[in-house]
Amino acid sequence: MDSFERTRRLIGAEALDVLRRSRVIVFGLGGVGGSAAEALVRAGVGNLTFVDADCVEETNLNRQIIATRETIGRPKADVMRERALSICPEAQIEAVRVFYDMSTAGRFDLGAYDYVADAIDTVSSKLLLIERAASAKTPIISAMGAGNKLDPSRFRVADIFQTSVCPLARVMRRELKKRGIARLKTVFSDEPPLTARDGERSPASISFVPPAAGLVLAGAIVRDLIGAAAP
Fold first, then answer.
1. pLDDT tens string 180-200
2. How confident is the model at residue 198, as a pLDDT?
3. At 198, is the secondary structure helix, strand, or coil?
4. Which of 7, 106, 135, 187 has the highest local Cβ count within 10 Å?
């Protein structure tokens, strides 16, 4: 027996071997990205890079898988790496503590990866990452808004130009059209966003919604990676 026995029974040895050889980079390790990153590790993806400049804060405790009282104040990328290696010590895991923007984008050769996971919150950085992935011809999946939502069952995978309701997706559709990008795989929710009870402008959240989006995102990546190798 080994830690991937049940995965192997589901997808087969050939597909599991594909995952072990695959290289995936995850940008953003918050409520969505952290759960996606962990799901990729547990699925057997053998080479992962985690990118996030932030440190764990107390306000992350309600939804982020890496947030505990013990990790508050520590860099998210480092915490995610440690957690991943505690699950799968043989995996090759790199932690990069930077914010992805024009000043740091040159540090990443996206062509060296089999898949890019975008769980960044900032629109300008999401657009830059999507453009760079398109130039590198590396598949990318982009998470749309998970804030101000209460129904985790409303997340699904769709092309950005087939999305609806989500305010972030609406902005992204407009900006991608300007850039001549005709398609983008996304995870989005068609649940109308709720209004925060306290009137704050920053997104409100709850424990089970951003992680659900992250799991959907990771599932889409795994299914794409194993492709014809799956039963």
1. 999 999 999 999 999 888 777
2. 73
3. coil
4. 187
